[in-house]
Amino acid sequence: MRTSRFVVSLAAVLLAASPAVRSASAQERSGNGFLFGAPTGSISLRFGYAAPSASSDLFSFVTNELTLRRGDLAAFAYGADVALPLRPRLDLIVSADFGGMTKKSEFREWQDNSGNPIEQKTSFSRQSYAANVRYYLLPYGMSLSRFAWVPSRYAPWLSAGLGRTRYRFSQTGDFVDFANGNSVFRDTFTSSAWGFTPQVAAGLDWNIGPRFALTTQAKYLWGKADLGVDFSGFSPIDLSGLGVTGGLTIRF
User: Fold this and answer.
1) Would the pTM of this model clear 0.85, i.e. be above it?
2) E strands within the chain?
């Protein structure tokens, strides 16, 4: 439900911004593409794809025993950034990223007493919040005078930062009790916690006007977090992974 509300809100923002983008682009072509002074900040709305590394033993167990692949853990992702300039070509970024999946599966080697598959549903989601420093490899704009600022057409950048990620992992359905005669039982297993997640990113802003840019980025984060009692015996869950997103930046 939260994802649906975000997507609807994002679509509304993009639709509302479209006429302004076309107007700003037309102004730039006519020689009026400037702001009265450099921007004091920006907001970016992004959406794309996130692929968890899934390298801990819990993921190895579920992909070996169940008809899940590591690629099944990849999912739609979305996020937002608020940027505040610290110095020319250097910004402070506060970011939030969200992604999650739900996939049906069954045991690869086991069936119930009636010969039916033993089925369950697995969900894995991550919510990441971070503060980053972003450095532009080239100037992303220039001041022509005290009152006129013109953006560069393209502005590549790199960033690094620290954050925390909250995960939720759950499985609901039928399972095999290997310690009790391989009997089949129905249950729900869940775990959620926070983990420390450093991250790095690289991206490109394509300026389509003084106030608007199309932005793309690839972000990788590292981290682990403890599992709950439902998954006792497993090592901490891997929260690392790559996310590739794109969207709209609005300067103010």
Assistant:
1) no
2) 42-52, 75-87, 90-111, 117-136, 141-143, 149-151, 154-177, 183-196, 199-207, 212-221, 224-225, 237-238, 241-251
